[in-house]
Amino acid sequence: MRALIVDDEKHVRDAIKLLVPWSELGITGLLEAADGQSAKELIEREKPELIFTDMMMPVMNGVDLLRWIHEQELTSKTIVISGYDDFQLARETLRYGGLDYILKPIEPDQLIEAVRQAIDTWCRENKDRTLSQNRVMEINQLKPVYWDKVYSQMIEDPQSYYAQAELLQQEFGLPVGTELVRVAVLSFEGVNPESLRSFSSDEDLFYFTMMNISNEIMQEARQGYAFSYWNQRREIVVIMWSRLEEAAQSLSRMQEGFKCTLRTSFHFGLGGVHPFPSGLKAAYQEASAALHQRNLLEAGQTIHLYSELDPRGRMQLVHLSDHGEALRIAFHSGQAQRMREAVADWVQAVTSAGRITPDMLEMWRSEYSVLCSQWSKAWLEESDDSPGPIIGDDVFELRYDVDCRFSLEQLGQALAEDLIRFEQSLRELKQQRGNVIYEIKKYVETHYQREISLQDIANHFYLSREYISRKFKQELGENLSDYIGRIRIAKAQRLLENPNMRVVQIAQMVGYQDEKYFSKVFKKLTGMTPNEYRKGQLL
């Protein structure tokens, strides 16, 4: 805290400085001014918490200074020290918020007690201000979440609108009695990582910026509201209730804002006009269908109208399984070039069809998983559900470049490379069969969540601890204990991708009863804490 002493007499200022045990009371800085005007300039610049002032001074007197402090609604506490025993001056002191009126010559005990009370008052009020500011911040943070829930509920249950109609009118200008609406859906899916770079990969901040841009456009003309829809996808939904014929133009303005601020564009699905609130769910479904059934091969178009969907589009499907036999033969050949050629044939068929939708990517992901499972069991001569090598789950993820364009060629390259990697993994796995060390490795992978000691493994396989320890290091290039830790942390990394699981639960699930020890091992092996890793994976 800092204090300002205002008096035109230097010896009075010096006396005040000497009489008060400043450091003991928490005052770390003392300022001085010889008149009210100089004090005013210091207050504006330094903002002291405690102000002592004389009443009779040149340029600006104490009453005028007190009045100015009061008008500025400053939080500083003031104490008047005056040589005039004047009722009117004391009255002006109280009128403008002064805490005490001390007469000269100054009584030390009276002055110290006045300072203590002023400091206590300031600290108490500052605590109340802080609590109040925190409450306001919490309310401001919770309000968008609340309205997201209200609007999301309106899509699921349009009748819920009637319970909120007046509040929606007050908050967003949604007129009571609105008859027609349109809905647009903006997908966050496929955003290019380069677009997140300026946000330090903070997806929440990026998403918050998108919402602000969207609502700035909507609220300029009280046209509608953009909110985060509480469903499995992370998407922004825009409800428009006025100037519906200008919906596409408004979405284009949003795109301009995204391009200018975020250096990227997004894809919108826009439904038709529907009655409100009864048709709200149908309006959302149309917009969602327009978005998820759009043709990814159409470059340059980012606003997709439900009315322009090709009704035959769903019939023009090129299944990955249609090329399953050619892919299987190439896969079992073990030749990388043949696998690339088989994938290229499939890519050519998709290109000839002229249509790819986000829904088709999901279909291909599922088909690829089934094919790889079949090939794995045939290769390893397994009939059970024993796990084989993991395929690339992200091969068929929707990805755009910074210009919001999709590349089928890049998808084909990713598929071919994953097939080659998968075949190599299967070959290596088959070679490992019959080797007891790899049986131990498989045992660890199956029982990693239990307490596993070297003695337990030795007893299970009827081998000596020394032999297992030596051979494991020779075959796999790492100690058994290090391998167990690495497997556990790898499993933990996958579990951390689920935001609904607590770190302590994940630690126990992978064999660590002590959360702190788990975090220590996790950071040692990955270079970051579990929470830091989770934040990076959820982007």
Automatic annotation (TrEMBL):
<keyword id="KW-0597">Phosphoprotein</keyword>
<dbReference type="InterPro" id="IPR018062">
    <property type="entry name" value="HTH_AraC-typ_CS"/>
</dbReference>
<feature type="domain" description="HTH araC/xylS-type">
    <location>
        <begin position="438"/>
        <end position="536"/>
    </location>
</feature>
<dbReference type="InterPro" id="IPR018060">
    <property type="entry name" value="HTH_AraC"/>
</dbReference>
<dbReference type="InterPro" id="IPR001789">
    <property type="entry name" value="Sig_transdc_resp-reg_receiver"/>
</dbReference>
<dbReference type="Pfam" id="PF17853">
    <property type="entry name" value="GGDEF_2"/>
</dbReference>
<dbReference type="InterPro" id="IPR041522">
    <property type="entry name" value="CdaR_GGDEF"/>
</dbReference>
<dbReference type="Pfam" id="PF00072">
    <property type="entry name" value="Response_reg"/>
</dbReference>
<protein>
    <submittedName>
        <fullName>Response regulator</fullName>
    </submittedName>
</protein>
<feature type="modified residue" description="4-aspartylphosphate">
    <location>
        <position position="54"/>
    </location>
</feature>
<keyword id="KW-0805">Transcription regulation</keyword>
<dbReference type="Pfam" id="PF12833">
    <property type="entry name" value="HTH_18"/>
</dbReference>
<dbReference type="GO" id="GO:0043565">
    <property type="term" value="F:sequence-specific DNA binding"/>
</dbReference>
<dbReference type="InterPro" id="IPR011006">
    <property type="entry name" value="CheY-like_superfamily"/>
</dbReference>
<dbReference type="InterPro" id="IPR009057">
    <property type="entry name" value="Homeodomain-like_sf"/>
</dbReference>
<dbReference type="InterPro" id="IPR020449">
    <property type="entry name" value="Tscrpt_reg_AraC-type_HTH"/>
</dbReference>
<keyword id="KW-0238">DNA-binding</keyword>
<dbReference type="GO" id="GO:0003700">
    <property type="term" value="F:DNA-binding transcription factor activity"/>
</dbReference>
<keyword id="KW-0804">Transcription</keyword>
<dbReference type="GO" id="GO:0000160">
    <property type="term" value="P:phosphorelay signal transduction system"/>
</dbReference>
<feature type="domain" description="Response regulatory">
    <location>
        <begin position="2"/>
        <end position="119"/>
    </location>
</feature>
